[in-house]
Amino acid sequence: MGRPGRRESASGRMAPRAAVRMGSDPVGRLLARFAVPVVAGLLVSRFYILVDGMFVGQALGSAGVAATAIAMPFVTLLNALVMLIGDGGTAVVALRLGAGERQGAASVLGNALVMLLILAVVLGATVLWWADPLLGLAGASGAVLGQAKTYLVVTVLGTFALGFSLGIDTFLRAAGFPNRTLLVQVAGALANIGLDYAFVVAWGWGIAGAAWATVLGQGVSLVVTLALLFKRDMPFRLRVRDLRPDASLMGRIALLGMPSFIVRGSDAALNLVMNALIVGYGAATAIGGDDALAVSGAINRVLQFALVPAIGIAVAARPLVGFNYGAGNRVRVRAIVRVALASGAACLTAVWLLVETDPVLLMGLFGFHGETAAFAAWALRVSLLAMPILMVRITGTNYFQAIGGANKAILLTFCQQVVFLLPFIVAAPLVLPQLTGATPLESVFWGMLASDVASTALVAVFLLRDPALRRA
Question: Where in the cell is it found (predicted)?
Answer without folding.
Answer: Cell membrane
